[in-house]
Design brief:
The chain starts with a helix and ends in a 6-residue tail after the last strand. The protein is an alpha/beta fold. It contains 16 helices and 17 strands.
Length: 506
């Protein structure tokens, strides 16, 4: 069955609410990849692979144990010693081969991502486009950045579930270009993309003539993480902090969450309509069910920009169009599927409950009709509509209201929920709000007609990536992406982060 037919089969199974057929199709699809057969298990004590679309268990995978981790590490060490003496231009030849093999399996990777996470297929295919950017960036920049450096050895890339391929590929390309071997650790909530990816990698290694250069683990094995020479981690704040402590002085790159603020100045309405601004902001946190680290989380508007706020509230109150904006994720054009993480669903409901208790205004209905999603009990459904909460009516001087609201809006929910903050009078007030509430400094945006406003905002905030008159976004690989004070991906030093800089040029 080719990819188009497979996508149609998945779509039809979801349309019929036929989980049994969907699961059968999915296992049959994955069986074509050699590494899946090694990981597949019928033992219920192994990793439960769950369908976000149906909210039901699919099958089991064997999580990598300590003995397997040591075997992976031994193979990776042997491969890294061979690859370390290869000149950069030769490494780039391997990356070119790898990209060609990934191109061969790119539709398979996208199908696996959608089947695991429920992310709309168009967005899953978009991950492949991001990957292409990283390969091109390596071709243009790696040799320049790696002059006089030495490979570190073995790199572990710990991928996240929301954009599993796109968030892993920067580390994979960076580590390989610098002369390291790579172990890709698949996230337990969305592991199956690694099987078509590894099929591509195995074909690339065979053609190039070095085995063990790229390997995968199911989940994160702690003994492996402790032993590798560098870890590129993508995930939540708590796990990232635990990893930092466990690694000590060993190299680590951490990409974590975002508490991203969008500022709308009154002057923005001189150049853009309120509806245009609202649609841009909505497009930042609505699609992909808000599961982007750069998605807008808070909106701070200046007095005089209230029309943009009202337009956004109206958008959420109207809700996404069934089967067009939200619906079967295998249908082209759909923008919103389910959440992947149950805790995100619980946090979103908790924020709405708090808003209702304190008298904040909630726009949009969280629940999704079973005419749009598979008919599953509400207790297991991860489908939600985009929602905004306007906190401006809450009396912050009463009791502990201010503290409770602060905790709520700064808690990254990782769902399609945007907090609307009380309006401010000046840009300085907006900067103060940003500094108080954006605890990450990852990404942000300012809508304004003034170049001076934009420059002033950039100079007086600690945000790595700021967009003007657009939603926050990851601007890597061309520009740096990450958190202030930490090693970041992209930009003029990306490949050096995976290398030893203490070497002298030959």
């Amino acid at each position: 069955m080719d990819n188009a037919a497979r996508q149609t089969a998945f779509k039809e199974a979801v349309d019929r609410n036929d989980f049994t057929e969907f699961n059968k199709q999915y296992i049959d699809f994955l069986k074509q990849f050699d590494s899946f057969a090694q990981a597949f298990s019928i033992t219920s004590t192994e990793v439960h692979v769950t369908s976000a679309i149906f909210g039901r268990h699919n099958f089991y995978l064997k999580q990598t144990n300590d003995a397997q981790a040591q075997e992976l590490l031994d193979k990776a060490r042997a491969a890294s010693q061979k690859f370390a003496i290869v000149p950069v231009q030769e490494r780039l030849k391997f990356l070119k081969i790898l990209k060609s093999k990934i191109d061969k399996y790119q539709d398979d990777i996208a199908l696996a991502i959608t089947a695991d996470t429920g992310k709309p297929i168009d967005l899953s295919k978009g991950e492949m486009t991001k990957g292409n950017e990283w390969f091109q960036f390596a071709a243009n920049q790696a040799a320049l950045q790696l002059v006089g450096t030495k490979p570190l050895g073995v790199a572990q890339v710990i991928s996240a579930y929301n954009y599993p391929y796109a968030l892993a590929i920067s580390g994979i390309v960076g580590a390989l270009a610098a002369g390291n071997s790579v172990v890709v650790s698949a996230p337990l909530k969305a592991p199956n993309w690694v099987f078509p990816f590894m099929q591509a990698a195995m074909e690339a290694m065979e053609e190039y003539g070095i085995q063990g250069l790229i390997q995968t683990s199911i989940g994160v094995n702690n003994s492996l993480t402790a032993a590798v020479d560098i870890v590129h981690f993508v995930g939540g704040d708590r796990a990232g902090e635990q990893l930092r402590k466990s690694r000590g002085a060993k190299k680590i790159i951490r990409e974590m969450g975002g508490s991203n603020v969008v500022v709308v100045m009154a002057s923005a309405l001189e150049k853009q309509s309120a509806d245009d601004i609202a649609n841009i902001i909505y497009g930042g946190f609505g699609p992909a069910a808000g599961q982007r680290c750069t998605a807008p989380r808070m909106l701070c508007a200046q007095n005089g920009a209230e029309e943009a706020v009202k337009a956004l509230e109206a958008l959420c109150e109207k809700g996404p169009l069934p089967h067009q904006d939200i619906g079967n994720p295998f249908a082209p054009g759909v923008k919103i599927g389910p959440l992947v993480d149950k805790s995100a669903h619980q946090k979103m409901q908790g924020a709405i409950n708090l808003a209702t208790e304190l008298g904040a205004r909630v726009y949009g209905k969280m629940g999704v009709s079973d005419k749009v999603r598979p008919k599953t009990p509400d207790t297991v459904s991860l489908w939600v509509n985009p929602v905004v909460i306007d906190w401006s009516a809450v009396d912050m001087s009463k009791g502990d209201n201010a503290a409770r609201v602060h905790e709520c809006v700064t808690n990254e929910i990782f769902g399609p929920l945007l907090h609307i903050l009380p309006t401010v009078k000046t840009l300085d007030e907006a900067i103060a709000v940003t500094g108080r509430l954006d605890t990450h400094g990852l990404a942000g945006a300012i809508f304004t007609a003034s170049n001076d406003d934009e420059n002033y905002y950039r100079q007086h905030t600690r945000i790595t990536s700021i967009m003007r008159n657009a939603a926050p976004k990851d601007q890597s690989p061309k520009f740096e992406h990450g958190h202030p004070g930490m090693p970041r991906i992209g930009g003029s030093h990306h490949f050096q982060r995976y290398a030893d800089l203490r070497q002298t040029p030959r």
